[in-house]
Design brief:
Blueprint (H helix, E strand, L loop, with lengths): L3 H15 L1 E5 L3 E5 L5 E6 L2 E7 L5 E5 L6 E4 L1 H7 E6 L5 E5 L3 E5 L2 H4 L7 E5 L5 E5 L3 E4 L7 E3 L1 H7 E3 L1
Antiparallel strand pairs: 1-9, 1-14, 2-5, 2-8, 3-4, 5-6, 7-8, 9-12, 10-11, 12-13
């Protein structure tokens, strides 16, 4: 398995040199996650990854065509989102804040790890996640983790800052 550290070691210099700064352009829905529940993140191109909720985690739903859901740790959630409006059943509408650095993945970016147009690597939450040519690799400003956002969902969710 390709670890987070291996991904950061390889891609961080590329992101720093060729990456662009983006911000979310749409609101998200979120609520406190039920501890122990497993969330499978599904994008338009299929299952991306899974994650098991721990106490305090937030369940986030992007307002995209696939309505993909994922879990966010409480400290990260507080840094990234501001409540705009309370909704039904514990959900809230949140305004994203903060920025990311991202690059669109090209075949030559993957050649260090594989000859294929896709590969799996360890997500920050320790599960495998899929990465395809055309997807975006993303790091937060702290540059302490790296993750994938599928191409279609990235286009629906982010804009250059």
């Amino acid at each position: 398995m390709i670890t987070q550290q291996e991904m950061l070691n390889h891609f961080l210099p590329i992101l720093e040199e060729k990456g662009s700064i983006y911000q979310k352009k749409s609101l998200i829905k979120a609520k406190k996650a039920v501890p122990g529940v497993v969330i499978i993140t599904r994008t338009n191109d299929g299952d991306e990854t899974k994650n098991k909720a721990e106490k305090g985690d937030w369940l986030v739903e992007n307002q995209t065509s696939s309505s993909e859901q994922y879990l966010v740790k409480p400290d990260v959630f507080e840094k990234k989102y501001t409540l705009i409006q309370s909704l039904e059943n514990g959900w809230g509408s949140y305004q994203p804040k903060g920025k990311i650095i991202a690059i669109e993945v090209k075949i030559e970016n993957l050649s260090h790890f594989t000859k294929d147009e896709k590969m799996e690597f360890q997500a920050p939450w320790k599960e495998l996640t899929l990465l395809r040519v055309g997807d975006f690799l993303v790091v937060p400003p702290e540059k302490n983790e790296i993750y994938r956002i599928a191409k279609k969902e990235f286009g629906e969710t982010y804009e250059k800052a």
